[in-house]
Amino acid sequence: xxxxxxxxxxxxxxxxxxxxxxxxxxxxxxxxxxxxxxxxxxxxxxxxxxxxxxxxxxxxxxxxxxxxxxxxxxxxxxxxxxxxxxxxxxxxxxxxxxxxxxxxxxxxxxxxxxxxxxxxxxxxxxxxxxxxxxxxxxxxxxxxxxxxxxxxxxxxxxxxxxxxxxxxxxxxxxxxxxxxxxxxxxxxxxxxxxxxxxxxxxxxxxxxxxxxxxxxxxxxxxxxxxxxxxxxxxxxxxxxxxxxxxxxxxxxxxxxxxxxxxxxxxxxxxxxxxxxxxxxxxxxxxxxxxxxxxxxxxxxxxxxxxxxxxxxxxxxxxxxxxxxxxxxxxxxxxxxxxxxxxxxxxxxxxxxxxxxxxxxxxxxxxxxxxxxxxxxxxxxxxxxxxxxxxxxxxxxxxxxxxxxxxxxxxxxxxxxxxxxxxxxxxx
Length: 427
Ligand SMILES: [Ca+2]
Ligand SMILES: [Ca+2]
Ligand SMILES: [Ca+2]
What we know:
The chain is mainly beta and 427 residues long. The protein is 8% helix and 36% strand. It has 4 helices and 25 strands. The strands form 5 sheets. Strands 1, 4, 5, 7, 8 and 10 form a 6-stranded antiparallel sheet that branches. A 5-stranded antiparallel sheet has the order 2-3-11-6-9, with no helix packed on it. The radius of gyration is 27 Å and the shape is elongated. The model is unreliable at 1-22, 192-197, 366-413 and 417-427 (pLDDT under 50). It binds calcium ion (3 copies). Residues 38-40, 75-77, 79-80, 175-176 line the site of one calcium ion. One calcium ion is lined by residues 53, 89, 91-92, 163, 165-166, 170-171.
């Protein structure tokens, strides 16, 4: 008999490990039945879909890992809402749950996908008010977020999954809304499994002067500190004007473009935007002694060059020109959009590294024109206005080659021809 029990024990399946997501309780409907807020019925029971974004949902299993091995769905149970999995980013719509009463002080749910604050998000709504909102982090991987509902005990709420974005990361992933008696604590979600090893920098954390002294340079060269923190923060691009002054872009918006339309942030947010500063060494000792804020409130600046009466700025989707008042070192007018169409969804490929060339005017490096629509828009601008842009006739040309990751993307070197001027130097 003992040997029989032993054999049965060997045959019994191993107990599955408890799912760290499988905690709390599902909300219940007015007739006391658990609502399908985890999609484990395999359909959209207890949900109302509008638009096209949630057609064919829910998704069964981790289809993310099957198509790209650097992300996972990290869903609960078998089923989840994977906004990209059926029809990609293009469709839009909402998915709204049946209303239910807040029976516990805390809730949590899983969210992933796009990070567009208002356009790819999960909202908890009470009456007409959104009382909580969460987005993804531009990863398919869902993470669990907790929600303090103590103020809403016994109120009726519902969940709304929102997809109003048809562009890059224009989708939202969602699963498993649950209630909890106490503030839930979750094991930290594993990071997306990217290959490679953590960066290690030998001199990380040195103060600016110490960093300069620690640098190794070829014989005959030396390094001195011209400007460093706290006088300059988060520099992303710089150039030197004809007076030897250093123009620096401080990037605060990067890596996600502020959703404000146009090149500038709204007035109330201007202090949060990108800045352009001028550092000047008036006494020639190799260190700056005059710092001027040329302008602030720019949106996602990644490239700068100075000359021909103003400042040439890359701030995807725009290539801008800002006239420069030499007396005040302030803009002499609003930014002019010379070109648009550069993608900003993939912000390590925005327009950058401007330099005045001997024959080709201002040249900039690799930048992605993200969609077919934006490519054609940029090309129309180029061909439609060959010689009437800013500063005495600037011609903008683009040489393109296919991006490796998609036939609809185009990138390459682009140039402006040198504006007509009597001077041979950019001034
Ligand atoms: Ca589920
Ligand atoms: Ca979408
Ligand atoms: Ca000085």
